[in-house]
Design a protein that fits this description.
By secondary structure, the chain is an alpha/beta fold. About 40% of the residues lie in helices and about 20% in strands. The strands form four sheets. The chain has an eight-stranded parallel beta barrel with strand order 3-4-7-8-9-10-15-16, surrounded by eight helices. A four-stranded antiparallel sheet has the order 5-6-14-11, with no helix packed on it. The longest helix is centred in the C-terminal third of the chain and has 17 residues.
Amino acid sequence: MPVPELGVQLGTLALKNPVICGAGEHVADEAGLRAAIDAGAAAVVAKSANESEDARRQWHVREWVLLDASRRPVEATSAAGTSLFNRSGLAPLPWDEWLELLARADEHASASDSYVVASVIPADPDALPGLARDVEAAGLRWLELNLSAPHAGESRPGSVARADSPEAVTEATEAVREAVSIPLTVKLSGEGGDVASLATAAHRAGADHVAMVGRHMAFMPDIETRRPLLGTFGAIGGDWALPLTLRWVAKTRLAAGPALPIVGTNGARDGGDVARLLLAGATAVQVATSVIVEGFEALTRITDELRAYLTEQELDARELVGQAADAAATYEEIALRSTS
């Protein structure tokens, strides 16, 4: 049986496999970034950062809890069947120190044919181009513009912003694209209505690829204490979110075609889920919750599971991209088939 090729082409970026370690507290230091690379990830998206001291201050009150299918807090060794509910802040280091750390980690990644992706999140719109230029000047080879921050509505005004309209996505993307020449991913919110329209706006404004979708904000009472879990509102994600993510990935594939590379994120827990996202039209997949719960070995497990699936199917990873989305019929076409 032939050995499958895991490598994929995300725009100008040749990735050794489709598995990317998504951003979060687990990759807010150099040890975490290196561990993700050493576990075999094609890339790791570092914890988002910006110039806001208020956003960094939120880091010190971060907290998370896992919820089971009955919405009760639970200890778990696997992310399967559980949801992650949390509040968070941005990377805690001063901006210049953070960039130095990312540059060191990316040098380590380069030796493994991998990438460390700097993630910038808007605060002051006027500061955004300068932050992007700083990333490129530091030697980083890939930038994510994170417009999906779920906590933006709960943060102090002016510390974290989210873009929920095509106009806002266009403005932010254009500002960053004019400032840098390195590959640019724009990460989009799942709470902004028609995500496919946000994706096409980002692409027209200069994004090389889009990542979709960010997690949703939620509120969860604890029925034992009759108080809010974590004391407040929080962002939530789980494997239940995968079909929602798959829908927007597929819709964007059909709206924009294969010319817009897509990174799927939110809901993937195993190699089969990575395959599902590729079939829906993604070229690569970000995984975060499984890493938070299981440790960085989750990245190795997921990559191995994907390889086993591809071996069984006798396909390479790139051959999966868009197969299911491209075969999706409209409701009218289904109705016509049923009457013919």
